[in-house]
Task: inverse folding
């Protein structure tokens, strides 16, 4: 009987397996190397891995008015190194982009076939990448109605498409057209080697219906998607794109392939690659694929939701400072920090309960648990962070008092020696290590205030008149329009 049940259970799991794996097999999420400031840089794979990407869209390099791409990946040894690094990190190369044609007119490049051939050769060196991206932005928008220019584009796209088909590849073009226009263009090109590299930004900017446009274009005509909008808001905050509706539409169409994040950066932090692309990749993976479950669980069981949200928000201030909040690593670090706050709350709650019957036992129990918790916190963080980043976490958790206070002393007493500055920093760091265990913000500040008193006594003993130094400092600060 038991054996029969096991067989039935195994069969049920096998039936469910396609549904479990379908999203991961159907959709992959990546970033464009030129947009994350890693064009043809080996570090793009480590960055993509940290962001939780399935892969990257590599660029062929800048083009400008040259006859060829500035492409180091045509060198076999360089391509081999890139492929090995990608494979070792589990990051795929989902597409190869010729982004230089965003600014260069395809019809004005006599070397267009050799440029495309260079792209195909590079794709082969990188392990047989199948999809190439060719934007037509450099051609302007008038070609859609300019018969002569349109004919030139159609002719060249036909040649490129046939060359791609002969190499077992597909070239995805980015056009300013809607589905009707793209279908007409593909019909004119007459090559299975040319498809549409669909761009959500184009649809949004023209005010077209995304769902209707996708359905009209059809799954077979879309080789990949640039799943982002213009720079303004993160995808999760962008009301212009209904991502659940997009996912449902692509599911119904039976489409599968790569979704690459090109833009959708928050303009308030446009150069912060990890925050912008981490957020967008995570959102796409939450919607289309699966986001990695953190190794460190958030120990929120039995705690009020508002309290948990407040603590998580406090922990994210530290991961924000490290620009890793939206990465799998950042989620683990956030949970470690939040769990430490929970742990401190539990330690002090137990202490307060024990105080009612035995104050000495309460203090001893709390001290013992704080000691273990203090060093355990460092050990947990060290799995994910460098020593320097651990310091940054502690600084955020103690309101950056170390830096603020140290800078204040240096500004107040410009004649401090290197030895005196070093001693001040040593004591402030010591204060931070104690403050990190304090039960409240007031207690943290009390800890630093005690050490400030020690610093003042030390400086007084070395001949400084702290009161006078402060008065003169206040005058200088006021003179330059500042406040203490």
Result:
């Amino acid at each position: 009987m038991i054996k029969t049940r096991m067989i039935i259970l195994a069969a049920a799991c096998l039936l469910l397996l396609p549904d479990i794996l379908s999203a991961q097999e159907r959709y992959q999420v990546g970033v464009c190397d030129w947009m994350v400031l890693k064009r043809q840089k080996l570090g793009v794979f480590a960055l993509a891995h940290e962001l939780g990407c399935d892969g990257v869209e590599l660029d062929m390099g800048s083009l400008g008015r040259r006859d060829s791409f500035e492409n180091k990946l045509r060198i076999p040894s360089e391509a081999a190194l890139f492929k090995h690094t990608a494979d070792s990190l589990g990051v795929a190369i989902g597409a190869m982009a010729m982004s230089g044609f965003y600014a260069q007119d395809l019809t004005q490049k006599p070397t267009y076939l050799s440029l495309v051939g260079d792209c195909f050769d590079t794709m082969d060196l990188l392990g047989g990448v199948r999809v190439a991206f060719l934007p037509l932005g450099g051609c302007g928008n008038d070609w859609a109605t300019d018969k002569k220019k349109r004919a030139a584009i159609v002719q060249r796209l036909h040649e490129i498409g046939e060359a791609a088909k002969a190499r077992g590849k597909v070239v995805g073009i980015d056009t300013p057209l809607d589905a009707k226009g793209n279908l007409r263009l593909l019909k004119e090109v007459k090559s299975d080697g040319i498809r549409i590299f669909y761009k959500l930004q184009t649809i949004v900017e023209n005010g077209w219906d995304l769902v209707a446009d996708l359905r009209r274009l059809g799954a077979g005509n879309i080789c990949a998607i640039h799943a982002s909008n213009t720079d303004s808001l993160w995808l999760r905050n962008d009301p212009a794109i209904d991502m659940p509706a997009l996912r449902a539409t692509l599911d119904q169409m039976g489409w599968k392939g790569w979704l690459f994040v090109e833009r959708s950066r928050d303009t308030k932090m446009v150069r912060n690659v990890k925050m912008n692309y981490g957020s967008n990749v995570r959102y796409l993976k939450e919607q289309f694929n699966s986001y990695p479950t953190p190794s460190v669980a958030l120990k929120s069981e039995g705690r009020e939701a508002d309290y948990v949200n407040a603590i998580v928000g406090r922990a994210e201030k530290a991961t924000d400072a490290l620009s890793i909040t939206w990465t799998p690593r950042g989620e683990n670090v956030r949970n470690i920090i939040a769990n430490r706050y929970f742990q401190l709350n539990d330690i002090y709650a137990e202490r307060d309960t024990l105080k009612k019957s035995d104050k000495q036992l309460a203090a001893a129990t709390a001290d013992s648990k704080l000691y273990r918790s203090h060093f355990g916190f460092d050990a947990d963080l060290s799995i994910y962070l460098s020593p320097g980043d651990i310091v940054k976490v502690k600084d955020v958790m103690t309101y950056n008092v170390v830096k603020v206070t140290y800078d204040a002393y240096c500004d107040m007493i410009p004649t401090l020696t290197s030895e005196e500055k070093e001693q001040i920093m040593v004591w402030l760091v010591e204060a931070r290590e104690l403050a990190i265990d304090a039960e409240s913000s007031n207690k943290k500040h009390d800890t630093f205030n005690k050490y400030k008193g020690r610093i003042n006594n030390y400086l007084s003993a070395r001949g400084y008149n702290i009161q006078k130094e402060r008065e003169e400092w206040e005058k200088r600060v006021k003179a330059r329009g500042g406040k203490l």
Notes: The chain has a mean pLDDT of 94.
